[in-house]
Amino acid sequence: xxxxxxxxxxxxxxxxxxxxxxxxxxxxxxxxxANSKIDIVYLGETVCSKRRLLRRDDWIDIANQLQxxxxxxxxxxxxxxxxxxxxxxxxxxxxxxxxxxxxxxxAAVQQLSGRSFITGPSVNIYNSRSLQLLAxxxxxxxxxxVELSKFTLAEMQKEKPVHIQTEVLVxxxxxxxxxxxxxxxxxxxxxxxxxQYRCLDYPDGLMLATQEKEKFLILNGIQTQSVxxxxxxxxxxxxxTLQVDVLRISPPSTHCEKIIDIFYQCxxxxxxxxxxxxxxxxxxxxxxxxxxxxxxxxxxxxxxxxRDASAY
Amino acid sequence: MNYVSxxxxxxxxxxxxxxxxxxxxxxxxxxGADAVYIGFKDxxxxxxxxxxxxxxxxxxEGINYAHSKGARVFLAINTxxxxxxxxxxxxxxxxxxxxxxxxxIAADIGVLDYAATRWPDLRLHLSVQGSAxxxxxxxxxxxxxxxxxxxxxxxxxxxxxxxVSESSPVPLEVFGxxxxxxxxxxxxxxxxxxxxxxxxxxxxxxxxxxVKWQDTNTGLQTRLxxxxxxxxxxxxxxxxPTLCKGRFEVEHNTFYAIEEPTSLNTIALLPExxxxxxxxxxIEGRQRSPAYVKQVTQVWRAALDVCHDDSxxxxxxxxxxxxxxxxxxxxxxxLGAYHRxxx
Lengths: 312, 343
Description:
The complex is a heterodimer of chains A (312) and B (343). Chain A has 312 residues and is α/β, with parallel strands linked by helices.
């Protein structure tokens, strides 16, 4: 790609880890991320409040290390807040002004109103009026909800307050649903209250297939993800044209630094998007790519036509 | 902060029933619904199905009929508009206000903001699609839009409902009976992942236009577009292929990996819900027939009356349960998330 065409190059962010990795793995992972080309790192457990191998102090340590390495650090809040204990944890998180917070539920938005905050993909901002309302509350950056298309984004970019930044998930499995029920525990015939932390056995989630063996969804505790990796590498030109400020990568358990590097190369150097895509496909988790939501189609579809439009 | 819910404890829980058309609305009112909820004939509501719902004339007739019998009518405008369709949602809100609807049930913060600003006297309820599962989230909607009631998502345990009821600034409405969403409403995109249409964007889950029923040598197969949702042996009853209620394979086991085809039924919990000061019980099923509305309304009217008169000795009657089972999805019912082991 040709940087001289661009008014400004978007930053790259790393979303919060969606799975349950053991403590050592997480700490080692972020040590490597500190040396990567990523600009912004979102930290913390957003899926299940029972995943506590890393405590608040551990996350703050990691946050400080990443900040010292020059990264912008954001602490992400839980997505589904049900119990009083979830709410207390949220209040503790939001009462600390040391780091920017990503709100993943309206409870966090309520807590953060009046100071700067970011909304994650599970806060439903589907139209300009919603965006403008939250801008008045202190919203600094929002992540496009994953089922919205480039056409909707284009309309919202025209109307959005100037100081608001836009972030789009460009690589990673799509978070599709949240439940009270733990599907990983269910698959093991275990009750949620005695799940035996089976998520630890699945660093990229537990595969669900149809009865025709078609890989379909990923069970990740109370979260359900797409098996296909949302991959907008071929849509980079559109993302730049739409002046998206931040491109988010959702971390898989392997090859994460390589993925960051591929996006970085495409944004900053003469690097063919076709070659980048071939490289990404070779290290992608099982299931392949999709970019249907971005192209206003079924989320699971892969639209290769948009690749031609952005290959330059 | 919980003065409203406490005040509510001495009041009788209200019965809120679904209506997909005028005959269903009249039947709900005639059989004891305190309120009936409806939607307009487009994607502004979460039961956007062909042949269902109300135009302006029918809405007016429905409101007149309900009011003449002392019942109220709520209108759901509870999907999430995008800018290209915004005027349709705005028009729907304006029409609802002009028709003097008793309450507007909405989810999107843009729609709520518009309604609260343009029609300050219009009573607002937060839809289940608003995904408010805790008191702090409810407080956001209360402080910003003066909502007067919240419909809770079907993901909380009974203990959690109690916690929310104790700290919510507004009274709560909970689901009592009907089709069960396993996922938090307003945050489930499974349907659009496969079909391009979700409850949020289009007002339908696993829409009929994407459904395929295929007879094969080995039996009936159901699909959403190309994705196999379930297959059935010769004498096995087939269910509508709602995406989360199919049989799938996980680690070589084939089972209902997400949820069985079953309906929520909380009738046994009525005394506890009443003691918490829950304002209203909601019955799901605007897409169901007037016959369903009649049967379910009759049962729940009777149950609420019995529970109100003597909650200590309340026992669901056998004939109530039989009736509810007969109209349930998969002919079975569950307490769902209210019952912790389900989770």
